[in-house]
Write a structure and sequence with these properties.
- It comes from Novosphingobium subterraneum.
- InterPro entries: OxRdtase_Mopterin-bd_dom, OxRdtase_Mopterin-bd_sf.
- This is Oxidoreductase.
- This protein is of the alpha+beta class and about 250 residues long.
- It folds into two domains: about 50 residues; about 180 residues, Sulfite Oxidase, Chain A, domain 2.
- About 30% of the residues lie in helices and about 25% in strands.
- It is built from eight helices and ten strands.
- Helix 1 crosses helix 6.
- The longest helix is centred in the N-terminal third of the chain and has 20 residues.
- The N and C termini lie far apart (about 45 Å).
- It binds the ligand Nc1nc2c(c(=O)[nH]1)N[C@H]1C(S)=C(S)[C@@H](COP(=O)(O)O)O[C@H]1N2 and molybdenum atom.
- The site of molybdenum atom has 6 residues, from loops.
- The ligand Nc1nc2c(c(=O)[nH]1)N[C@H]1C(S)=C(S)[C@@H](COP(=O)(O)O)O[C@H]1N2 binds next to strand 5.
Length: about 250
């Protein structure tokens, strides 16, 4: 299979998925997975929150002149640094776990898929915020292309970086994963995503606090349960600092 054929296949499929995405509430399949997600994650806070509501979007006039880099700014692994040196030309994002059709995508293929651009405010739990413009592929397109299993409850993001040898990872439920503003961003403020902000791609999950926005995403895994994934808490900070798994804002 040539690269061009592969890309056409993926773009074609994603195009169809985008049409479906706009009708997200009308699709019985998506309604089913959303319902499963809600059941798995019900809590007092979530009961009073509309999980489908959009996060506020801003204009270019609102962009923060400086957007801080937080947490890791350069993954230490030799593999990551080799990808960085070749401008991520041979890098591939893997999508697997509880899906019928696992697949991987190059950065060029990700950029050729349907895109969404949004200007949103990032809120870090440490008490700072910044407004940035993000462009990327809706996560829902990739999950539907992979034919996510009806038994999957969470999406896990495995990252290239670590803190003292412990890998960074994060997870969200299907409600956040299928949300239209949840994208894998490769572009920030109309420039290629800088390494400090998570190159080649980072998650934007706009209804959640900063630590959920995994940078340096290498692999996406659909799972039925978070038990058995690292410490089982659903994320690096959840496992190691008692951060709440549900970080909705
Ligand atoms: N892989 C990875 N993702 C991460 C982090 C990190 O250290 N590693 N830090 C998190 C935190 S706490 C915040 S506030 C944001 C910071 O994103 P920024 O560096 O683009 O500002 O990334 C989040 N995602
Ligand atoms: Mo943060």
């Amino acid at each position: 299979m040539t690269l061009v054929t592969r890309r056409n296949a993926i773009v074609g499929a994603s195009g169809l998925l985008l049409a479906g995405c706009e009708k997200i509430t009308a699709s019985p399949t998506v309604r089913k997975v959303l319902t499963l997600g809600e059941k798995a994650t019900l809590s007092g806070q979530r009961l009073v929150t509309d999980r489908n509501a959009l996060a506020p979007e801003f204009t270019r006039a609102d962009l923060s002149p400086r957007f801080r880099m937080n947490g890791n700014r350069l993954p230490a692994s030799a593999e990551y640094q080799a990808h960085m040196a070749s401008n991520f030309a041979d890098w591939k994002l893997e999508i697997g776990g509880k899906v019928a059709r696992p697949f991987s995508l190059t950065l060029a293929q990700l950029k050729a898929a349907p895109q969404r651009t949004q200007i949103t405010r990032h809120d870090c739990v440490e008490g700072w915020s910044a407004i940035g413009e993000w462009t990327g592929v809706p996560l829902s397109l990739l999950l539907r292309h992979a034919q996510i299993s009806s038994t999957a409850q969470y999406i896990v993001f495995h990252c290239a970086d670590d803190f003292s040898g412990i890998p960074y990872y994060e997870s969200i439920d299907l409600s956040d994963a299928m949300h239209p503003q949840t994208i894998l961003a490769h572009t920030m403020n109309r420039q290629p995503l800088p390494v400090g902000h998570g190159a080649p791609i980072r998650l934007r999950v706009e209804r959640a606090l900063g630590y959920k926005h995994a940078k340096y995403v290498m692999r996406i895994e659909a799972v039925e349960t978070l038990a058995g994934i690292h410490g089982g808490g659903g994320g690096y900070w959840e496992d190691h600092s008692g951060y709440q798994w549900f970080a909705g804002i």
